[in-house]
Design brief:
InterPro entries: Nuclease_put_TT1808, Restrct_endonuc-II-like. This protein is α/β, with parallel strands linked by helices and about 90 residues long. It has a single domain, classed as Alpha-Beta Complex (tt1808, chain A), CATH 3.90.1570. It has 2 helices and 8 strands. The protein has helices at about 45-50, 70-80; strands at about 5-10, 15, 20-25, 30-35, 40, 50, 60, 85-90. The strands form 2 sheets. A 5-stranded mixed sheet has the order 1-2-5-7-8. The radius of gyration is 13 Å and the shape is globular. Mean pLDDT is about 80; it is low at about 1-10.
């Protein structure tokens, strides 16, 4: 399990494991569809907000031998539909 600490990687960008990306958020601010990428990279909002809403600079997903093809395809689709400009997969 990742520690909930925030790590400053370089000025102006923060990667936070785990950081929930609110892919679909209702009008009341509740997360309807959310994901915890292994690394979520964006500006300072990750340092202050428990749920990131918007389009991140990049995300990284680390697949394990137990990751199913259905799970991998579902996350790939959700990240693509969420507009992630950079999606890195590590195996």
């Amino acid at each position: 399990m990742w520690a909930a600490t925030r790590m400053r990687q370089w000025p102006g960008v923060i990667a936070t494991p785990p950081a929930q990306w609110g892919l679909v958020v209702d009008e009341g601010g509740e997360v309807v569809v959310g994901r915890y990428p292994d690394v979520l990279v964006d500006g300072t909002s990750l340092a202050n907000d428990p749920v990131f809403v918007g389009v991140p600079h990049a995300i990284v997903e680390v697949w394990s031998p137990t990751s199913t093809l259905a799970e991998m395809n579902r996350k790939r689709r959700e990240y693509r539909e969420g507009g992630a400009p950079v999606f890195i997969e590590a195996f």
